[in-house]
């Protein structure tokens, strides 16, 4: 009932409100994606996909359940996972806005720099590949993407207590992998 | 120009929001929307936008809504409310053999110039100075010349908006942009109810990059379209 009354947040319905939301977060989203895709064209496609997914799933956003960025990283994470289940060709065929079509040479150079800057993070994510899925998801969002543990819990839709347990377990395991703690800044 | 990928993506996403809102508003709210055409009668005037090489042509005035109609001479009339579901209009027109690209936007927004090439029959010798002229005599002459262009023969502001397929060349696409005022004007608050521009193109048609059109609310000195 409550959802019926409140409807999706303004940023999904009002172009000006959306612009404010988009400008606040677009850099964080492309950096998030550059940590997971090394090809600027794919980063552009995924950026378009993430913000379209924002419009599709805005009704799931609850201001009382964590920050916008936590919710947005949750959306971005699902978009990346969905993309990995498909091929690049399929992504382009199904994308309603083909992000790469909007790129010019300057944009590609800028995204390449961003992809390069995120290469330590990509190495860290690779090193975490063997952790159990649930534990890895939390460690990624906290140690690599910089969310607080409670934000990461909100992004993944799990409780705070469960998040703390999984995060602790993931940190302990990952310490045994040589070199990862340096990549993710050790104490985070 | 500091137009970046992020800016271009933002424009596409905003257009997507407008299109979605138009789609969700269209079916259920007809009963509420219909009176605006009656209430606005006599108040709404649309202005044909002008460019250097061709004049996007047609200007319309609101009339009570009725359904997409095929006339005995083969022409097809549409009413403004039908354009709130642009995908459906494109489908309906396609069934009647007309390829169309329809964009529905709120008044005050428009697609940026350069979406699609002009057809040869739309090139005019009218100078830039004349197009910008405020002289009623010059404006009347331009309107008269504009009526002879290929697009004006194919798309007219009669019975709402009328498309005449026999004037559409092989492979040509009907490019229509509708800008509707979200606040319907009435006799107490006259204003532009909606604005429309239509022309032919051989394609390709690029996606609409939504830009501001602050002058759209200004009724200005433009008269009603010829013949209305």
UniProtKB/TrEMBL annotation, chain A:
Which controlled-vocabulary keywords does the entry list?
A: DNA-binding, DNA-directed RNA polymerase, Sigma factor, Transcription, Transcription regulation
The record ties this protein, via InterPro entries, to: RNA_pol_sigma-70-like (IPR039425), RNA_pol_sigma-70_dom (IPR014284), RNA_pol_sigma70_r2 (IPR007627), RNA_pol_sigma70_r4_t2 (IPR013249), RNA_pol_sigma_r2 (IPR013325), RNA_pol_sigma_r3/r4-like (IPR013324), WH-like_DNA-bd_sf (IPR036388)
Is-annotated flag, keyword Signal? no
Any one GO cellular component localisation term in the record: DNA-directed RNA polymerase complex
Where does the RNA polymerase sigma factor 70 region 4 type domain lie? 124-174
| TM helices/strands, residue ranges | none
What Gene3D superfamilies does the annotation carry? 1.10.1740.10, Winged helix-like DNA-binding domain superfamily/Winged helix DNA-binding domain
Keyword set includes Metal-binding: no
Q: RNA polymerase sigma-70 region domain spans which residues? A: 21-89
Family membership, please give it: Belongs to the sigma-70 factor family. ECF subfamily.
What NCBIfam families does this protein's entry cite? sigma70-ECF
Protein name in the entry = DNA-directed RNA polymerase sigma-70 factor
Gene expressing this chain: rpoE_3
TrEMBL record, chain B:
**Source organism per UniProt:** Microbispora amethystogenes
Q: Which UniProt keywords apply?
A: Membrane, Transmembrane, Transmembrane helix
Which domain of life does the protein's organism represent?
Bacteria
How is this protein named in the record? Uncharacterized protein
TM segments?
37-59
């Amino acid at each position: 009932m409550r959802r019926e009354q409140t409807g999706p947040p303004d940023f999904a319905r009002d172009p000006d409100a959306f612009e404010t939301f988009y400008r606040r977060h677009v850099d964080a989203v492309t950096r998030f994606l550059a940590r997971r895709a090394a090809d600027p064209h794919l980063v552009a496609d995924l950026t378009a996909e993430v913000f379209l997914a924002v419009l599709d799933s805005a009704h799931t956003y609850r201001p009382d359940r964590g920050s916008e960025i936590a919710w947005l990283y949750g959306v971005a994470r699902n978009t990346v996972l969905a993309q990995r289940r498909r091929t690049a060709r399929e992504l382009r065929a199904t994308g309603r806005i083909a992000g790469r079509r909007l790129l010019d040479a300057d944009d590609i150079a800028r995204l390449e720099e961003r992809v390069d800057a995120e290469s330590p993070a990509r190495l860290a994510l690779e090193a975490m590949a063997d952790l159990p899925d649930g534990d890895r998801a939390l460690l990624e969002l906290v140690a690599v993407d910089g969310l607080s543990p409670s934000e990461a819990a909100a992004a993944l839709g799990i409780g705070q207590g469960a998040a703390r347990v999984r995060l602790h377990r993931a940190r302990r395991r990952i310490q045994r992998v040589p070199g990862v703690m340096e990549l993710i800044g050790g104490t985070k | 120009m500091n137009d970046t990928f992020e800016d271009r993506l933002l424009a596409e996403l905003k257009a997507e929001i407008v299109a979605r809102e138009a789609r969700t508003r269209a079916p259920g709210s007809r009963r509420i929307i219909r009176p605006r055409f009656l209430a606005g009668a006599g108040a709404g005037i649309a202005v044909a936008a002008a460019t250097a090489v061709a004049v996007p042509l047609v200007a319309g005035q609101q009339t009570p809504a009725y359904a997409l109609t095929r006339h005995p001479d083969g022409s097809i009339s549409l009413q403004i409310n039908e354009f709130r579901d642009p995908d459906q209009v494109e489908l309906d027109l396609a069934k009647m053999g007309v390829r169309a690209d329809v964009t529905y936007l709120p008044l005050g927004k428009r697609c940026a110039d350069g979406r699609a090439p002009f057809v040869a029959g739309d090139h005019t010798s009218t100078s830039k100075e004349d197009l910008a002229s405020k002289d009623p005599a010059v404006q009347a002459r331009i309107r008269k010349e504009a009526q002879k262009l290929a697009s004006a023969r194919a798309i007219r502001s009669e019975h709402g908006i009328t498309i005449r397929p026999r004037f559409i060349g092989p492979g040509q696409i009907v490019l229509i942009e509708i800008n509707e005022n979200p606040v319907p004007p009435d006799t107490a608050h006259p204003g532009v109810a909606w604005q429309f521009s239509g022309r032919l193109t051989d394609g390709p048609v690029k996606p609409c990059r939504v830009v501001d059109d602050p002058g759209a609310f200004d009724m200005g000195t433009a008269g009603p379209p010829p013949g209305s």
